[in-house]
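Tokens in:
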């Protein structure tokens, strides 16, 4: 697309670029260059135009663009197809539908805003603009009981991406909350379609609170949440973070298919749950104990005060002395 190419050229050029130069590089007329620049301005870019010097990009909107996301991504599976939506109910719903209709493995559905975002355990995921909401379609040849490991894989990829793109010390709270400074900055929701003996497709839904106004969250959620921008003290380049995330997912998914142990090892390295006293709730019961281990299927092993062990497949875990879950 000419518009994307013009944007790339303006971005990679510090000073002015003449209309003539842009037109020559693109093989189009100067009038067409001007039309594409007007269209970029309508998208929220600020382009300074000076008669004898040409065009210079002076400001960019905090908006995701499919061309930017794909540019230089170089992944093998994840992000080969990117569907970017301005608004949708839930990217998981869209991705599950696309997966049923045969969409390719690695297809990513992204939305700027979700009107009915879903969290774990039937909760809502409040999804205003400024954050990341995405769902990725996977088709791993795995038995159904291995599905929870895909969520752990996603949590490893998310924590790693936040670490490398934002230089923030992201950690994972079992099963798949990503925390920064003890507060939740992101979460994962996995949904799947399966036959009795194998997975047909899995949709990994990821929500990350990046640049949103924290006031958009109700008090109860805000108390236990954070945004990457408030942790970093600056606004975060969402495209760069998203690209890190897609690359990490691509890498960790391939590693996972060849060695589940590698994912579990990295999950353990990045987790903040094991070794701590935890309160576990869900499935109609609540108890406290010491989080000892995760097993080969990603379940949490908790040692109770009487020395007995409980293995938890799903539920909420809060670390001792911390506020309850979001
Ligand atoms: C959690 O409860 O921690 C999981 C939150 C998952 C939210 C993401 S946002 C993108 C995708 N679409 C949804 O409706 N939910 C997931």
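Residues out:
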């Amino acid at each position: 697309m000419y518009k994307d190419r013009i944007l790339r050229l303006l971005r990679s050029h510090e000073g002015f670029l003449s209309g003539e130069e842009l037109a020559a590089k693109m093989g189009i007329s100067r009038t067409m260059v001007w039309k594409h620049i007007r269209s970029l301005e309508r998208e929220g870019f600020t382009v300074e135009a000076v008669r004898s010097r040409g065009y210079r990009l002076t400001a960019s909107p905090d908006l995701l663009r499919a061309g930017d996301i794909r540019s230089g991504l170089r992944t093998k599976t994840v992000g080969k197809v990117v569907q970017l939506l301005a608004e949708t109910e839930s990217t998981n719903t869209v991705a599950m539908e696309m997966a049923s209709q045969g969409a390719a493995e690695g297809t990513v559905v992204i939305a700027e805003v979700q009107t009915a975002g879903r969290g774990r355990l039937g909760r809502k995921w409040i999804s205003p603009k400024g954050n990341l909401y995405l769902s990725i379609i996977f088709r791993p040849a795995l038995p159904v009981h291995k599905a929870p490991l895909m969520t752990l894989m996603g949590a490893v990829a998310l924590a790693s991406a936040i670490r490398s793109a934002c230089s923030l010390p992201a950690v994972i709270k079992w099963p798949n909350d990503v925390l920064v400074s003890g507060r939740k900055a992101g979460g994962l929701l996995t949904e799947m379609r399966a036959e009795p003996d194998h997975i047909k497709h899995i949709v990994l839904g990821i929500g990350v609170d990046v640049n949103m106004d924290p006031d958009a969250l109700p008090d109860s959620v805000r108390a236990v949440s954070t945004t990457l921008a408030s942790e970093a003290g600056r606004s975060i380049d969402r495209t760069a973070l998203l690209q890190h995330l897609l690359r990490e997912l691509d890498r960790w998914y391939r590693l996972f298919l060849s060695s589940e142990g590698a994912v579990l090892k990295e999950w353990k390295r990045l987790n903040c749950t094991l070794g701590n006293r935890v309160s576990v709730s869900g499935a109609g019961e609540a108890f406290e104990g010491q989080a000892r281990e995760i097993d080969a299927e990603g379940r949490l092993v908790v040692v109770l005060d009487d020395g007995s062990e409980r293995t938890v497949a799903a539920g909420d875990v809060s670390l001792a002395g911390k506020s309850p879950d979001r």
